[in-house]
Description:
Layout: H1 2-35, H2 47-71, E1 75-83, E2 86-94, H3 99-122
Antiparallel strand pairs: 1-2
Amino acid sequence: GSCAARYHLAYIGVCIFLSAIGSKTYRVYKIFTTAKSRQIQRVTITDRYLLKLFMVPILVVLLILLIGLGSNPPKANQTTEIENNTATTFTLCETDNPIYWTVLLFLGVMVLAITKMAYDSRAAP
C-alpha cells in the first residue's frame, strides 16, 4: 500500500531527475567530443533518441522495483512511544528486501556515468 509508494516514489523521482540530467549532459558530451576530432562534423541528436536515453533508466528502475514489490514488499509497523505521560503512535515502513540496494547501486552508477561525461565534456577544446 502506502509503504511501497513511499519507497518507490522516492526512487522513481531520483531516477527521473538523473535521467533528465543525463540526457542533457549526453547532448553536450556528444557535441564537444565530436569537436575534439579536429574535423568539422555535423552532430545530429534527435529528441526521439534523447527520449530513449531518458526512458531506459526509468524503465530499468521500475522493473527492479516491481520485482521487489512482488517478492517482498515493505510492511507498515505501528510503533508507540510513551514520554511524559504522552503516548505517540506512528507508522514505520520497514523492509529487509535487498532489491532496494540494487536500485541504489544502479542510481549510483548513473551518477558516476553522468559525472564522467561532464568531466570529459569539460576537457574538450
